[in-house]
């Protein structure tokens, strides 16, 4: 154990993947619901870790994207997405450092979305020199699945209706209209456990992040990939509620399901040919709204085009990442 990071456990996972590549495919799912009465919420679905199925239960109540939307004064969908990106980056950084016998005192990441670009900064404490910090941050840029998903275009297949028919090509082109800026601070606690809080005047409760047990975590909270998928599902569901009201004048409930695959062989460098970023991304809007076919098509297309989290994943917007080594406190 180093930094409470189970390096031996990761070595076992790498060994399993090299013996059976099917163990490297981790399939995640998330679901969001937007209700005119109960507000916006998101939860994770069952996951498949290689050949092992896991049904964990985590959910979060969110603030609606619409300024007058119902629901608690909680995190925005973008906060969930940024939490997923930053926590994945920090897990990669600490995991990579632990494998190289680096001992950390702290690791934090501030990440912000201004409507057109992402700005982030990693602060690392306890690392002896700037060169080591630069090397670790370079590993984040190459091997963090969510960070590489942010920096490389990753298509998301959009389906809707009772038959889950594919949406027409070119549903969303270009950046969405500027929405709410969002920012959060993610701090590493121990091992694969992290905490995230929105950088608002009143940040509220922290979000817990952890790796699944199959990747040496303790299931303290959803993992980084699940936060990113919950953010996408919640953002689309929230925009569906708003767009449907504008198009039809009706306040309707909506459900959105998102899934994606992570090849952990790329994260753990067990397979040099593995794709690091998320793959096989799919967003499905079941037909539970009672709208006509044309109305549903218009509402889904408008919500998809307006989703800033969708834009983060599909378009690879401008990203600025900096790092800083925090000097150790004197004994």
Give structural notes.
With 331 residues, the chain is an alpha+beta fold. The protein has one domain (2-326): K homology (KH) domain (GMP Synthetase, Chain A, domain 3, 2-Layer Sandwich), CATH 3.30.300.20. Helices cover 33% and strands 29% of the residues. The strands form two sheets. Strands 1, 2, 3, 4, 5, 8, 9, 13 and 14 form a nine-stranded mixed beta sheet that branches. It has a six-stranded mixed beta sheet with strand order 12-11-10-6-7-15, with helices on one face. Strand 8 (156-160) and strand 9 form a beta hairpin. Helix 2 (77-99) crosses helix 4 and helix 5 crosses helix 7. The radius of gyration is 20 Å and the shape is globular. The mean pLDDT is 86.
Overall CATH class: Alpha Beta
Question: What structural category arises from helix and sheet content?
Answer: alpha+beta
Mean pLDDT across all amino acids? 86
Low-pLDDT parts are none
End-to-end Cα distance, whole Å, is: 24 Å
Strand content: 25-35%
Q: Identify the CATH homologous superfamily.
A: K homology (KH) domain
> Helical region count?
8
Quaternary organisation of the protein chains: single chain
Global outline: globular
The number of distinct β-strands equals 15
Order of helices and strands: HEEEEEHEEHHEEEEEHEHEHHE
Radius of gyration: 20 Å
As for the CATH topology, it is GMP Synthetase, Chain A, domain 3
Q: Percentage of helical residues?
A: 25-40%
Largest sheet: 9 strands, mixed
